[in-house]
Amino acid sequence: MPDGHPDAELVWQPGVGWQSCLSPEHPSRALLDLYLPICSATAARPITVGHLGQSLDGFIAMHTGESQFVTGHQNILHLHRMRALCDVVIVGAGTVAADNPQLTTRHVSGPSPLRVVFDPSRRLASEYRIFSDDAAPTMYACTRTLVGTSETHFGRAAILGLDAGPAGVQVVELLGALRERGGRRIFVEGGGVTVSAFLEANLLDRLHMAIAPLIIGDGRPAIRLPPRATLRDCHRPRYRVFRMGGDVLFDCDLRTSGDPDGAADATLVTRVI
User: pLDDT tens digits, residue range 169-185?
Assistant: First the structure.
């Protein structure tokens, strides 16, 4: 429909992306506000989003790796929606070893993305179902020196060899390879080590941090970054807050900063009680 049509629900703004025309009270407004930044990605303005679900005390799993499920059903649906909206979903070796995930969109409508397992040290065996099913195309990213001369696949997953180096350097190479393959929307779903590597390398445009009403006591931490000298040196991004069942999701825009005094200019999309 033409610009300015009274029945329009969305409007495209060049250089910005899709914007909602719905009133703040409309029941669909919160969903649009959360997902339009991902839908607005283009080849010229791609997006990479990280996600972690953590307890109130900052852990994403037990020390044993058990993490199913720290967050509740609504956040699980959010993960599936993100997969459906994105071209690529990335997880680390620890997530595969602990959860044996499928990384498909079986709980929502929409296509399953390319599944990428980031395992630089090649510690996984091919027994996990992500390497043996045909639910979605799969890529296994590991250090090139660990790949045999004529080896092209790991189970059913195509192998992507990466140059040897620290994780921060390898995720830069991985992201570049995925962009060359047409990945405009990339979702780094976990776990903490992998999301932290992308975060430290300044490769994330947004971070979705879901906080569950759960106290673990001790376990595997969510974010692992080199410490800053002072609080003033720490990044305080702009954010929005969404209620997902019993969980609270912080949608952080890592390309901008909030109020250094803590009163961030954020839009409260749904009331948090």
Answer: 999 999 999 999 999 99
Cα separation of 140 and 10, whole Å?
37
Are 25 and 174 a contacting pair, CB within 8 Å? Answer: no
Query: For residues 26 and 18, is the Cβ–Cβ distance under 8 A?
Result: no
Look up residue 15 and give its two tokens.
């250089």
C-alpha closest to that of 170 among 130, 133, 196, 141: 141
SS3 label, residue 94: helix
| Contact present, 135 and 117 (Cβ < 8 Å) | no
Does residue 255 carry a pLDDT above 90? no
Matching residue, tokens 């397992």: 117
17-20 and 10-13 strand pairing = antiparallel
Place 235 in a pLDDT band, splitting at 50, 70 and 90. confident
pLDDT value of position 27 = 67
Least-confidence region, from 12-16, 76-80, 190-194: 12-16
Angle at 103 between CA 216 and CA 83, to 5 degrees: 100
CA distances from 89 to 12, 48, 133, 225 (A): 26, 10, 16, 22
CB under 8 Å to 202, separation ≥6 — which residues? none
Peptide bond before residue 131 is cis, with ω within 30 degrees of 0: no
